Amino acid sequence: MKSYFASEALLPEGWKRDVRIALDDAGDIASVEHGASSSGAQPLAGPLLPGMANLHSHAFQRAMAGLTETRGDPHDDFWTWRELMYRFVARLTPEQAQAIARFLYIEMLRNGYTAVGEFHYVHNASDGAPYAEPAELALRHLEAARAAGIAFTCLASLYAHSNFGRRSLLPRQKRFRSDPAAILRIAEAVKRAAGENPQFSVGVAPHSLRAVDPAELAELVEGSARLGENVPIHIHAAEQQKEVEDCLAWSVKRPVEWLLESAEIDGRWCVVHATHMTPGETRGLAASGAVAGLCPTTEGNLGDGVFPLLDYRAAGGRFGIGGDSHVSRDPAEELRLLEYVQRLAHRRRNLNVGERSAAVGTTLWLEAAAGGAHALGRRAGAIEAGRRADLVVLDAGNPDLAAHSGDGIANALVFSGASGLVRDVMVGGKWVVRKGRHPLAQEAVAAYRLAVAALIAQ
Fold first, then answer.
1. pLDDT at site 299
2. CA separation (Å) from 181 to 37, 141, 234?
3. What are residue 239's phi and psi, to 5 degrees?
4. What pLDDT, on a 0 to 100 scale, did the predictor assign at position 351?
5. Going by C-beta distance under 8 Å and a sequence separation of 6 or more, which residues neighbour residue 289?
6. Catalytic residue among 56, 120, 141, 273
7. Chain segment 399-423, per-residue pLDDT in tens
8. What rounded mean pLDDT belongs to the chain?
């Protein structure tokens, strides 16, 4: 049993002083006391927060950062961006995918993410044929996560059609082609490779209603029981207005409306983006128990729109955050933008607060950490007994934290716009970042540079 002592820590009920945390040998939190003695405990170097889950990742897109910011179409939008993504992913090798993912996962850790959900839809070789090991690319991401030390949920994604009504896949989508049976086999292969390691898990991800028909969706959800109880199920929905219009033409229902009525979503589900909802859909999604997966920097980068967060939270909805295309790898930046777009839409300030705190930083960190962990099926997201010891220690010596206490710490973390506030990071009871450094950082940078140089040169 190891014990640590923090002068201040963010517990589920809010900030507390003189917090003593005991961890068992399995990497779980055995006990938490506040107003406790530091005797015999290892002192932490700054304020303590629960680690954040990045619930929605397309790791390969990290290497696209900056490549799509020149207008090539008078009406540049998500759909023109998608064409550029298709051209980029067509060149990606397994070795490059692993190098990009390892570098990305280390970046995440150094900013305070402790877990990632890899929404993995690139399954096949560049000619569209399955690899000799169909789970090749999924296993590459698992190995990247293992090396980095981040907790990892592989969300094997089913991508069968190009649009609603079972439209055939386009030639440039051939690397994504899959069916429910193949997706379940990929998830099972990752589960076998992970063994009994509690840091690794699997889920399924019907890519979207445009890419999966109702029968395939039902088959995948039913088959997910083979992977274990309460396996996470993630899906993109209502990210773009055109998607909503196409769904209405197909089913006379909007995407989230269709999911609520026909898929009977529940607490196993994470609905990613859900940007364009009616008030009724917003209340229905909140009541379903599903987690809304919000990706503010990517949604902003792609011009998606603004999620109705105030109404959703008022209805009791749970949410988490994701890096998606990874134009940001910093959870504080995601939370800052999440609040700022609400301020712009409502023309008021300090909107997302709760009963536990009137501080936006505290509220958003607590809620996103809890919601993200739930969405990944991970027993984490809070500093309390029985949870995994996924912990983030801030740098008390950083000038942006000077003289801050309690809610002021979280507000400075989220709203100061500073970098380097995260000092130490623990995942499952093991330190993976110390004094802002990761032991494999230099090696990962070198491999990433080679991968990106080769991809751009082609």
1. 97
2. 55, 21, 17
3. -75, -35
4. 98
5. 266, 267, 269, 318
6. 273
7. 999 999 999 999 999 999 999 999 9
8. 97
State the pLDDT at residue 72. Answer: 83
Provide, rounded to the nearest whole percent, the portion of the chain with pLDDT above 90: 95
Largest CA distance in the chain: 66
pLDDT of residue 75: 85
Q: 2-49+383-441 adopts what CATH topology?
A: Urease, subunit C; domain 1 (2.30.40)
Answer yes or no: are the C-beta atoms of 107 and 68 closer than 8 Å.
Answer: no
DSSP symbol at 7:
E
| Cα 259 from Cα 67, distance rounded (Å) | 34
Catalytic pick among 246, 324, 390, 395: 324
Half-sphere exposure for 175 (CA within 13 Å, toward CB): 20
Question: Which residue ranges make up each domain of the chain?
Answer: 2-49+383-441, 50-375
Cβ 126 vs Cβ 91: under 8 Å = yes
50-375 homologous superfamily: Metal-dependent hydrolases (3.20.20.140)
149: region left, alpha or beta (phi > 0 left; psi from -120 to 50 alpha): left
77 is catalytic: no
Cite the beta strand spans of 164-282 per DSSP E. 200-206, 233-237, 269-273
First vs last C-alpha separation in the chain = 53
- pLDDT on residue 37: 97
Q: Determine the Cα–Cα distance for residues 391 and 16; give it in Å rounded to an integer.
A: 15
Say which range, 1-10, 67-76, 308-317, 334-343, has the weakest mean pLDDT: 67-76
One-letter amino acid at 273 equals H
pTM for the complete prediction?
0.97
Return the C-alpha torsion angle 427, 432, 437, 443, nearest 10.
Answer: -120
Rounded Cα–Cα distance for residues 233 and 244 (Å): 21
Q: pLDDT band at residue 451, thresholds of 50, 70 and 90?
A: very high
Closest CA to 426 of 14, 54, 151: 151
| Type of residue found at 430 | K
Quick check: 79 pLDDT over 90? no
For the CA atoms of the chain, what is the radius of gyration?
Answer: 21
Tokens of 401: 């934290």
pLDDT at 457 over 90: no
Tokens of 296: 């503010």
Q: Are the folds of 2-49+383-441 and 50-375 the same?
A: no
Work out whether strand 151-158 and strand 113-120 pair parallel, antiparallel, or are unpaired: parallel
CB-CB contact of 364 with 327 (8 Å): no
